[in-house]
## 1
Amino acid sequence: MSSSSQTMPASSPGVGERLREARMETGLTIADVATRLRMQLRVVEALEAEDWARLGAPVFIRGQLRSYLRLLKLPESLADGVSDASVRPPELTPRTYTPPMQRMLDKAMGRAVYVVITALIAVPVWVATRSHVDNSRPVETASLGLDGSQSPVDTRPARPTPVTASLGALPKRAPAAAPAGDLETQASADLVMRFSGDSWIEVIGPDGVAVEQALVQAGQERRFEAGTVARVKLGNANAVEVSRDGDVQDLSRFQRANVARFTVSSDGALAPAAE
């Protein structure tokens, strides 16, 4: 059979029906299964309907299937029939990432340009106004009661030396460097994920918009800046190492059926995510 014809799992055409029949024989409802496995109702329904497109990556589907098969005491090998060709992850548009230092430099350069433009406009205007005021002062003479043989003393105030304004480029102000402590704190607050095996990830930002949702290959790394992540879901969580402030986090308290779900607070602290 050619690879183009693999649109459904190759060796598990009846796995959904077997799950449904086994569940009904044990007297369990879909809600009971969802409660025991800590899954959403739509996930259980999709597994029984073999609607793999609703569940994401194959590694995520296999993990959910094994948990369901284990609950009903069915062979877990049925989950291995899910083909990678049967599930097509959604195409995501990568976001442009700007390093924190680059953003700080851009802000500093913008302020420097504003100062230079203001100086180029204000300095010539001030010089021209000052010269006009000095030239408009009346000339006053004072008599000291001396005879005509003596020259009168010039009591006029000395005029200031004319100043010529130059419109040449002023020296650029160097951008202010950020304190070293702030940069270290910002770098240490990043959330880093390292993958030793294929894993399906879903990262949601504070605004509820998906930051990343994709199948990550083994050996890759993801780094998220502090404050840009609110919720995280990891498939095949045993193959993912999550670190914060350089410390590796224990995912077992967030993990169910090899799927980890947790939230990230504004200060980077991890907590279990509500179902």
## 2
Amino acid sequence: MSAPASGGVPILRLGDVLVTGLLNELDDTTAVAFTEELTSRISSDGARGVLIDISRLEIVDSFVARTLMELTTMARLLGARVIVAGMRPPVAITLVELGIQLTGVETALNAEQAMAAMGWHQSLQPAGGGPG
């Protein structure tokens, strides 16, 4: 695990996938710092995938949408696939009502589905510790 990005957003590495999230306090300064840190980490860690969890976002406005699209484009240019996970139904409804399209942004219902889409599979182990 690594220290939080300069904007205070942690970026964790799981194999060749970086996992991070966005919080409601996304302003210009935080967005720039987060974008710089994430793109730097994609390059230095050789990440092939990035999971951005937005389940804590209650509102996605045009600024956040633009930030997600720009992050996705930058990550792709660096060879990484980005999946945005955890969009709440009210957020999806608001985006549609405002006519905001997350062009080029791949989404998943939750973090588990996003990780599975990137090739990660949870091993199911029986409760109680195994056969016996």
## 3
Amino acid sequence: MKTTEYLDAVKAKLDLPSDYALAKLFGVVTSTIIAYRHGRSAFGIEVSMKVGEILGIDGHAVYADGQIERAKNAAQMDFWKGISEKFSVSFRNLLLGYGPHVA
């Protein structure tokens, strides 16, 4: 489950002692963190962007990963996987300096 991995990575990177500290960081209540961990809720865009910022990854991809986990059918899952792959390719190209350049 990517969501749990993201939560644990943020806690480790910032040396946070608890899910309570994680909740304060994201501006949510502890029960929201528990809901994330148990797959009852997905990150909103604000939390996804903050996770991405902290971990040095694209927050949009974090958001898409959460939507993949919560997809109710194969069509929804495929849609979000496509979005996630596009973000990954775009971000990788940006890092490598590909894409349109302004002279």
## 4
Amino acid sequence: MNQPDWYHPDRENLTWDIFGEASRYLSQEIVNSGWFPDVIVGVARGGFIPAGAIGYAIGVKEMGAINVEFYTDIGVTLPEPIILNPQLDTASLEGKKVLVVDDVADSGKTLDLVVNMLKETAAEVKSAVIYIKPETIFQPDFYWRKTAEWINFAWSALPVITADGSYKEGH
């Protein structure tokens, strides 16, 4: 099988094909649990694509986003995650069951912040990620795979495209 240019044999590589399998698996796990969200909130930016895929797979049209910054570069984080603008209208979640979706529970600090913040308004909050890391402080309700490896996601593995047509590392 031909691998994409960004594929590294010493890393966990989530290609688009594997992502399709992972998102369907997660969606099936959510349906099998008997719990069904009214709203799905994707954690920007890594959770956007999985949140959309799960929303389509289980038929949820009410989608939201919450912007959180924690990683500032590969392997470099802020001391704690911070909520960025534009802010999610948390009042609109009152009385609703909310599924928070992200790409990975690495340290777990981002999910811990978001889930606990949304629990202040929503009736019930659960979480789903593609990957969990062994050292996470937050255990999501649903996940596809556990890995200790650095993860190359299909949507963020390539360099950023700049206005002058060049590329720069970092996402």
